[in-house]
Amino acid sequence: MGRTFDEDPLTLAMAPPRDETPEQRQLREQAEAEAKKISDEIDEQIRRERDVDRRRKKPVKLLLLGQSESGKTATLKNFQLTYARREWSEERASWRAVIQLNLVRNVNLILDHLTQEMGGSSGYSDGHNSDDSELEIQVRKRAKALPPLRFKEKHRLLKLRLTPLAGVQADLERKLGEASQEVYATPVNVAAPFEHATNRRALQEFSINSTNGWKTALDKFRTPRPARPEAGPDPLRKAKEIEDEITEIIASCKDDIKELWEDPVVTEMLNRRKVRLEDSPGFFLNDADRLATRNYQPTDDDVIRARLRTLGVQEYRFIFDHGRTVGQEWRLYDVGGTRSSRAAWYPYFDDVDAIIFLAPISPFDEKLAEDRRVNRLEDSYLLWRSVCSCKLLARTQIILFLNKCDLLQAKLQRGVRIRDSVPSFGDRKNDLPTATRYFQQHFKDISKQHSPVARPFYMYLTSVIDTRSTAVTLGAVEESILREHLRHADLM
Ligand SMILES: Nc1nc2c(ncn2[C@@H]2O[C@H](COP(=O)(O)OP(=O)(O)OP(=O)(O)O)[C@@H](O)[C@H]2O)c(=O)[nH]1
Ligand SMILES: [Mg+2]
User: What start and end residues bound the annotated signal peptide (predicted)?
Assistant: First the structure.
């Protein structure tokens, strides 16, 4: 074959030798085919590694489920405190308003009871009302049998001096928005309304899907920037003035708040009415000395204990700055836990790496706020069963937190007997290890019976307001979720 002088040197170098025999040609072509095969394999390997790498960098998605007040948001806060510390520190101060509202609510609740008690001869009317709960009827009966409470002039004055806190509560609730109000009776009477839901779009009206969650409420309480003089009255500065006014009123009520909470007649009144504020969400009365001050700044523990209800489904994006996955994005989905909020959960089951399911085990003798006929533990069992049996979640890792162990311990120490509310507990020992073993076994049995495909049972006993022990639990959880995340990345 003739060659021209203008062919480029590379083509010349790659060209077969002029005097190549047919055998040599066959060997050469075989060698070239082999080299191409190896090169293609290397290319494919690089492509696959890039793909896995890209998937590894995909955000880890974690969904928090459980009934209202089970501790989902408190768990989320622990994640932020442990793994996204910078953001946590930036936000801590803006929780002050929520904590102030929690404290003021505690006080106003006592004042409401006081007003009812001091209102009539014994504070209770004689007639029964069809709306009265069984507890109220019982309380009324017991109160009649006991000597009257000895209220003094001091109680009337305390009520009078603490009146401004009603206005403070209203102001704070208005500023914090709907999340600051607790929900009571709702029309939904099934534990898992998500079971019949189909797609995200159909449910949009139920869900507030925001990418900044509690920030919406807290943003109004960030430190204002200096206003430009030509811009007129600065709304942020105005907000700051209101905030200072609220803080001033609370600080000026400090001694009265403490006197009210430490008063023996008030204690007796709350006992008779079976009101245990200490166990309720957002209890801060024992911290009034520290909180009701002009320069109060929330501590980490205060923020974890602060109660702000979750509305709809909230997405939080954190780039972890601590832990094994520094630089990795995590998306945590926090949901409202009342029965009427649960229909909005289903669309989020689709694409999560793991679920943390929170079941509080201390309220075994309490009712749901949204439906006073339903026992809280029973509701958790039903909800757990629905989540375990959900086909869409058949291969999703589910981690159970049996939460509020601290409150369970305190309740058992006070002598509350489990078998009075949970007859199947029987004559077992009424102590913490026996109780947690018993509840754990019940959840394990449900998971075994109702999971469509056998799944491992991951369970932790938690008190998520204890940030130290929770950090240890989250370390184990992080590792196991990450392992699953990477396994998925390798399989895809
Ligand atoms: N003592 C104690 N309190 C807890 C524990 N876990 C949560 N709490 C408190 O219980 C209250 C309710 O917790 P949240 O985290 O707001 O509950 P939630 O599940 O997010 O509730 P919703 O948003 O209404 O669905 C908060 O004030 C928490 O600080 C716990 O283990 N022990
Ligand atoms: Mg919440």
Answer: none
